Amino acid sequence: MRTLSRPRPGALLRRGTVALAAGTAVVLGLTAGPAVASADPTGGDAGRAWTATTDGPDRYPDIAVDEDVPIRMSDGVVLRASVYRPADASGRAVADALPTVFNLTPYTRLVPALADAAAAHPVLGEALDQLGAADLSGTPLDGLTELTGGLGGGLLRTFGVNRDLVRNGYVQVVVDVRGTGYSQGAWDVLGEREQRDTVEVFDWARTQPWSDGTFGMAGVSYSAINSLHAADKQPQGLKAIFPVEPSEDLAREIVATGGAFGAGFMPAWLVAVNGLKFAPVDSLLRGEFDPQWLADRLADPAVMFPQMFDAVLNGGGEAADDGPFYDVRAADIERIQVPTFVTGGWHDIFGRGESRIFDRLQLPAGQKQLLMGNGYHLNPGLGHGREGAPPRLDVLERAWFHKWLKGIDNGIDRYGPATLYRQGDGWITASQFPRAGAAHQRLYLNGTPSGSAPHAVVDGSLTTQAPAAASTHSVAPGLRGACSRDTAQGTAGFGAILGSACTQDARFAEAEALTFTTAPVTEATEISGPLAVHLLTTTDGADGFWSVTVNDVAPDGRSTVLTNGALLSSRAALDESRSEKDASGAYTVPVADLHADSKRTVAPGVPLVLEIGLNGTEAKLAPGHRLRVDIAAASFPRYLPMLPDLQASGLKPQRLLIDPAEPSYVNVPVVGAPGW
Question: How many whole angstroms separate alpha carbon 464 and alpha carbon 663?
């Protein structure tokens, strides 16, 4: 067992001195009755009390760590864990039985440990906080502001080890999932065996003297998905989960969005995890080498690569078919019975599913929470802790577990329940998402020039009335989509380093797109929920690919992407059991059928109707702004059609048909009276 020395006193308060008034709020929030959270993204007085509690004095002065703790599964495979426990000033672990928070990760325990060390270091931690708070707008490095903005928002603590939790009466257990890190076995990639392992880890923990049998789960991305899987099993002792950026539907969100491969994320991610699983060779130096560990690694050194290559090169295999492979990996959200706080971002790779998870949870408001920011996968917590914004993620995590694992009435159940970053405006609180009163309205694509996009292939209009005249508009694949918010999203945020000229302004990419834009809105117009685009198309080849974004266009011409979607022409078939329509019969949530046998033959030159779903979003168009639909024939690397589909398309031009008898339109969820 080793100990983690307490950071110098100033480091505990490096995010700001806890003033006497804040300290008083802590006392009031914990000892003088429940703090009351308001309909305020900051949490109001309660939110200030949560932050003061987190940044204030700790209950225990130190942390004791047991490394490489073996946990034997029912099939004989041994997982390895790090167990973090509160310790006294001498570094001795306390004897108390305490609530336990689990994080099951494929990135080896080394990565969370490094994140923890960076966050806790008195100099490096301060530097990371300052980097996260830096505003480089207007400089060539402004993309760095987008990329690192989550560092000051509690990201490192929620991704790694939350020392604050441990020093205040929790045990934290970080486990390498089978086949990764120091654990034996073959990596099961969120599969059935891996899900069973989580439940067996709980069974093991209940036998440990440091556990009181009360459990929570936390973590980012993969670990967040693991927490949903665990919760739907309803294991004994699990009381709450705090998933940051979980996925609802891996096929549609990142692996095969609209039938096209997520080239910006999947290859790099698989290389990273398969590489990291060989990282724990330090055991050789300690004389603790496990030959079974090496045998398991060598038996399958590149997990999921055969499936990926089969999908990309042949368009086949289980990764290209929305069948049993994905069914096993989809959490049964409706079965979750424990309080669940879902955090996500409108431009996260899993941005489509996070609000859907919240909507599907069969829990009362307060026991389910949704927090949707404006960031990417790499920077959850973007802007948190600032004026008018939600508390940091680590603050919310502690308040959540204090309420549901320790029974402290701190008001977190009266927060939200939907805390949303409204693009074009700022943070708001709502009772649900989509917000109450949201109703879909059609805006029709019209060939009449809007006068707002002379740089585009076509500068068309969006109107409330169907077009009176027919027109045909051609668009061909290109590479300008590499400089776009699509690229930033599809690379988990890494593409944001290209800068705001790409991520905050779509005009460069629009030079290869058809654009359709409203007149300036006369009053503020609020959008809340998923959008859908209905297009009448033809292709010159035997397939085609359609990338669609909906943008907020400022008076100075800047075109900022609010949401996106995509579809192959051959994937026009819909899964009607999952799709939704409005009262007029127009789709509001069209869900492509990605089963292998649902693929359609596309006849060149023959009109084909496409229903393209766009991710849900929350936005506000200020007076004088416009709404725009961009339609492109490519957006690489966010999307890459499988090789057979690419060959079928021949990269030939595609055509959008404006036909008064079969008008194309975007179905927009509007709250209140729109200004167009």
Answer: 12
Phi, psi for residue 368 in degrees, rounded to 5: -120, 135
Return the SS3 of 598: helix
- The half-sphere exposure of 181 on its side-chain side, counting CA atoms within 13 A, is 26
Identify the bridge partners of residue 514 per DSSP, sorted by sequence position.
458, 631
Q: Give Cα separations from 262 to 252, 447, 492 (angstroms).
A: 10, 32, 11
Q: Residue 101 forms beta bridges with which residues?
A: 172, 216
618 residue type, one letter = E
Residue 23: band (very low, low, confident or very high) from pLDDT cuts 50, 70, 90? very low
pLDDT tens digits for 166-211? 999 999 999 999 999 999 999 999 999 999 999 999 999 999 999 9
Q: Which is nearest to 101 in space by CA: 234, 248, 202, 235?
A: 202
Distance CA 636, CA 633 (A): 10
φ, ψ dihedrals at 322, nearest 5°:
-75, 70
DSSP assignment of 405-445 equals HH----SGGGS-SEEEEEBTTEEEEESSSSPTTEEEEEEEE
Structure pTM? 0.92
Confirm if 260 and 547 have CB atoms less than 8 A apart.
no
Q: In the prediction, which pLDDT does 31 show?
A: 34
624-656, pLDDT tens digit by residue? 999 999 999 999 999 999 999 999 999 999 999
Say which residues have a Cβ less than 8 Å from residue 463's Cβ, sequence separation at least 6.
443, 444, 446, 448, 518
Torsion of CA 569, 571, 576, 581, to 10 degrees: -30
Contact (Cβ atoms closer than 8 angstroms) between residue 425 and residue 645: no
Q: Who's near 393: CB < 8 A, 6+ residues apart?
A: 153, 154, 155, 157, 158, 244, 343, 380, 381, 384
Amino acid at 460: G
Please state whether beta strands 545-553 and 78-87 pair in parallel, antiparallel, or not at all (unpaired).
unpaired
Count of Cβ atoms closer than 10 Å to residue 295 Cβ = 10
Give the CA diameter of the chain: 82
Q: How far apart are CA 174 and CA 172, in angstroms?
A: 7
